[in-house]
What does this fold into?
Amino acid sequence: MEPLRLHLNELPWPPPKEVLDAARKGLEKLNRYSDEKKLQELMFKLGDYTGIASERIILSPGSDILLREAVHLFTQQRKVVTLCPSFLPTVTSARQTTNQLTRLRLSLPDFRLNMDLLKSELEGPCLLILDNPNNPTGKIVISPDEVKTLLEKEDVLLIVDEAYYEFSGITCANLVEKYPNLLVTRTMDKVFSLAGARIGFGLAGDVFLKKLSDFFIYLPQIALYACLAALDKKELMKERVNFIIEERKRLVEKLLTEGVEVYDTSANFILINSPIPEVVEELKKEGILITDLSHQMPQGFIRITIGKAEENNQFFNKFQKLRNRFGLTKKYDE
Ligand SMILES: Cc1ncc(COP(=O)(O)O)c(C=O)c1O
It folds into this structure.
């Protein structure tokens, strides 16, 4: 049996029929690089979706690749400042390109970003990368107004990674027209049920736009066709997002009732602190995949993607059984 995938922050439903039909059309053109007109059309549609001029859109096969490219292009002679914990591939990429890397720790009790500390780190030429909401805490670490104050600083380049924007509803997108030193990255992979298609995009301020548009990006045909069709299904996407938000609330309440430490989140996953030894391995044996964060956070922190109602129940029931097995029932905690 297929394992239950609650480890990569994907949406649990496949794309709708119209998107699959469009992807098949793309499949028939696999001998060709993608058509430039179709790529233009995608940029227009993304412009319309985000409310940003389509000329500012940078396409990418997954936003992780765009983040890596931006890091490689903009770290020369710059200090890189990121968060800890945060989306790891971007950090790894920064490690490869600079030896001036600072990671600001988001600490308990609520993983708040200390703005004074952040500002004190931004002396001299810097590249600052913030995932907002942050992965894995799910926290909105910075407001658009706070972002503006950072963008006023000379010498600061800022990347705001908004992979989970549709869940948080908070964005810095409209700042890219005014601030040349801002890049906002987004993805179609999460809320549009297209993780297997791998399409991300950037909304680029002038400094980023100049360098990132040096290369022409031919997206894979199947992904391109699927993505164009998905942008015609925004209502369905919103329904799915709302469903996940409701399910997230329900699961959080159930876990809190059990006395589990759960943190506030604005994404399609939750962070919990679990004293069950080897919880990730134990659940894997039961066919449930979740994410162990011990490489970035203290022992016991795990991230769980919100799935369909029955999937969340399955996780909860197995998790509760494990708690009982290890004598961690609510009664025991009190
Ligand atoms: C914070 C964050 N940024 C970027 C990405 C990359 O998304 P993708 O490469 O699928 O567009 C992820 C994926 O999990 C993420 O969590």
